Amino acid sequence: MSTALFVSPHLDDVAFSCGGTLSALKAKGWTVALVTVFTRSVREPRGFALECQTAKGLGPEVDYMALRREEDRVFAQRLGVDLTVWGELEEAPHRGYASAEALFRPPRLDDAIEAAVARCLRPVLWELKPDRVFVPQALGSHVDHVQVVRAVQGLGIPSNRVLYYRDMPYAVRQPDAKPDAAVPPGLGALMVDITEHLERKVEGCACYGTQLAFQFGGEEGVAPLLKAFHEREAEAHGRTGAAEVFLTEAVS
């Protein structure tokens, strides 16, 4: 039995970016694992970190990350994820990134989280020995995505097993965004037909209720946005239907 490991910086990135491929592999009988790196609850958040949750209508008394972990648990149950791992690392607003603008600048020199990301992922890789590992391209340059893709490079994963997914919703908001420099050059594009799994992807994304208003304008916006985007992805590669597209050495 083949195993796929999906690496998600935050509690929603894999669902939004490549949930259709996750669903397709599960349907083919693959063992599917999901590890999310930045999931740690922080007591009494302040400043910009607090703003990130109050802007979504959640008061300071709410354990925002516990709520998000529960959303992720529901997603995993709904899509049949076999193994879910939550990393004990803090999101960027808790590591000194004090504004929305700062999240999309190069990592701070005092942000030493890359090594901790590697320590989070290494035992999962050792245990599973996955046949495929899905990691972000860091489109949009969110610092947490950047730190994940950079940490992955030092983990000794065979390069032909790694597939770099297009980060959503940045791939929609910034269609000309380029992968982070840590993504190896010269990779080819691999298109995965998710036409039969698009509805499942939409259902999975809807599990992350705290994020839908900000990312999609509400739950009603999820299906139209994803349908249009994935149809464009297929069309760009000369296909019909809906597709998720990855960068990988396997087709270079």
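the 2nd protein, sequnce then structure:
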Amino acid sequence: MTKIQEISLDDLWESAPKSDRPFNPESLINLPNLARRYLECAIAPGTMLASTVRLWMRGEIKLGKHWHSFKAEEVICWDRGMIWQVTTLMNGLPILGDDRIVDGVGQAKWNTIQRSGEDITRSCVGRVHSESIWLPSVLCNPDIIWTELNASQVQATFTALGEPAKITLTVSNQGVLEQIKVDRWGNPDGGAFQYGDFGGIVEETGTFEGYTIPTQLRGGWFFGSERFESEGDFFHCTIDKAVYR
């Protein structure tokens, strides 16, 4: 069995090199109009193209049938993975969570309950893919294949952390991100793991260090279907702070 990487959130953050390459909108000239509009809105000219973001967030998460408020801190390091550390309360008792994918090994841990293995790793990678919206600099990579689907949706296809990714962004006329949908590996029904529609609705945006990102988001499984509202919606968050390197 592959050993879980027990590095800390601080360790992952400190391992990221500081960027020295500024964003130049002219580098997007060959992209579809909608992709270019989104990236120009998300990244201010001259902003250093970061590979890592550190986020402080709060919100509500649905565990079982009930919603619980939470506070969390997260580091997304595009070349290595992510660590999300969360604290919530259940029946008045603190519950500690730690979801991570680092150097190809994934883990989902809540208090003493720990899940790992190939399916968890693949699902965690899918989470990182979806959270590229908090690190839009990585979507400037020239290896990404962009396809404009219609007047408001554009799709990015790429490989990251060893797994293929296909994300669909819904973008306003002003370039503001409104929704994201990804093909993510998981088992929201409790059965066999498979690819399913996972996504989120952006309710507010904010700007940190030159990046305009979703600051209020609700998301979950079965995105784009009636099941999202009744069954899939399980995560509501507000981003209070984001720093980049």
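The CA atoms of residues 16 and 234 lie 31 Å apart. The first strand starts at residue 52 and ends at 63.
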